[in-house]
Design a protein that fits this description.
Layout: H1 7-17, H2 20-27, H3 34-44, E1 46-49, E2 63-65, E3 68-70, E4 74-76, H4 89-100, E5 104-106, H5 114-118, E6 124-128, H6 134-147, E7 152-155, H7 165-170, H8 196-204, H9 212-219, E8 225-230, H10 233-241, E9 246-249, H11 263-274, E10 280-282, H12 289-297, E11 302-305, H13 307-338, H14 344-347, E12 351-354
Parallel strand pairs: 4-11, 5-6, 6-7, 7-8, 8-9, 9-10, 10-11
Antiparallel strand pairs: 1-12, 2-3
Helix pairs in contact: 1-13, 4-13, 10-11, 12-13
Cofactor: FMN
GO molecular function: oxidoreductase activity
Domain FMN hydroxy acid dehydrogenase: 1-357
């Protein structure tokens, strides 16, 4: 893979190497993609106020996430069907994350088995979708524990799949070798004018998920329970009151409700509502180490990174993902020093102002 200096470089390379319908699947959002664009605009408006005259000759980028030390305040977000992007699939991404010392979140809809992903040797969290078949859910939770996963990340913003117009227009389907192997399922054949992923989701996801189901999940696992897809401050406070050990402020990367609040806008209110009782992570729109700093300054404990990792996978497999994570590390460490922060904790004490947007 040729030299890259930013995740935007990797994005361009990934676009060159991906089939058009696969690239639309990676890059697209729901509806008119208003929220997809708004996530970036919101982060670009966050102007960090650097501190001066701070000794940053030594800079510690590490933090603790659910009992495990991460080399960065960052984890790889859960994303489905990664073998669609590259033959290395989830195993390649997990191996790169392990080498970088950051957690990897394996999806229910992984195209590699949970056990194979966890065998990469890094810190693995398991992302759970609420399925109609509760026996399958129980088996997934058991397998995640036995494989050594350190947390369960319950996605709460997909009662149904958002209308992803690029996929609908493409009649998007998966190739025969890409399947949801953890649920022993078949997604189905191409349907003109529809997305087989959306059809599969409607068939197997249970839209009745509610607060009362959290107790059921906690009764079937000893792992920390994290809710992903929280945007309302009251929901975040209620989750912590019910014993949830973490929340992820996320609009699913602009792929669910088009018109939803950008994650970076919702983050400060969620942080205030949680009152330090659990970690709060930001997901959706993170593209650089500066974005990680912005999220911390807004009160986040850490971030989840999604699309840039897929860009790396498409561009060069495990090596491409490693390049993305290395760029993020270099950018974040530089941003910490320039902001007058010798460690992650000091970044959370920074103040922010609103900027009209990025400048050159």
């Amino acid at each position: 893979m040729r030299e890259v200096w930013s995740t935007a470089d990797v994005e361009r390379l990934a676009a060159e190497r991906s089939a058009p319908d696969v690239w639309d699947y990676i890059a697209g959002g729901s509806g008119e993609e208003v929220t997809l664009a708004a996530n970036r605009a919101a982060l670009d408006r966050v102007a960090v106020v650097p501190r001066a005259l701070v000794d940053v000759s030594a800079c510690d980028t590490g933090c603790e996430l659910f009992g495990v030390t991460s080399s960065l305040p960052l984890a790889v977000a859960p994303m489905a069907y990664q073998r669609l992007i590259h033959d290395g699939g989830e195993r390649a991404v997990a191996a790169a994350a392990a080498a970088a010392g950051v957690p990897y979140v394996v999806s229910t809809l992984s195209s590699d088995p949970i056990e194979d992903v966890a065998a990469a040797g890094g810190t693995t969290w398991f992302q759970l979708y609420w399925l109609r078949d509760r026996e399958v859910v129980v088996k997934l939770l058991r397998r995640a524990e036995e494989a050594g996963c350190r947390a369960v990340v319950l996605t709460v913003d997909v009662p149904v799949l958002g209308r992803r117009l690029r996929d609908l227009r493409n009649g998007f389907a998966l190739p025969s070798w890409v399947k949801p192997v953890n649920t022993d399922g078949e997604v189905g054949e191409r349907v003109p004018g529809d997305s087989v992923i959306a059809l599969h989701t409607s068939a197997v996801f249970d839209p009745s998920l509610s607060w009362r189901d959290l107790e059921w999940i906690r009764a079937h696992t000893n792992l920390p329970l994290v809710l992903k897809g929280v945007l309302d401050a009251g929901d975040a406070a209620r989750a912590v009151d019910l014993g949830v050990q973490g929340v992820v402020v996320s609009n699913h990367g602009g792929r669910q409700l088009d018109g939803a609040v950008p994650s970076a806008v919702a983050l400060p209110q969620v942080v205030a509502a949680v009152r330090g009782r659990c970690p709060v992570l930001l997901d959706s729109g993170v593209r650089s180490g500066v974005d990680v700093l912005r999220a911390l300054a807004l009160g986040a404990t850490a971030v989840l990174v999604g699309r840039p990792v897929l860009w790396g996978l498409a561009a060069g497999g495990e090596r491409g993902v490693a390049a993305v994570l290395d760029v993020l590390r270099l950018e974040f460490e530089t941003a910490l020093r320039l902001a007058g922060c010798p460690d992650v904790a000091s970044a959370r004490r920074l103040t922010v102002a609103e900027s009209p947007g990025a400048t050159t």
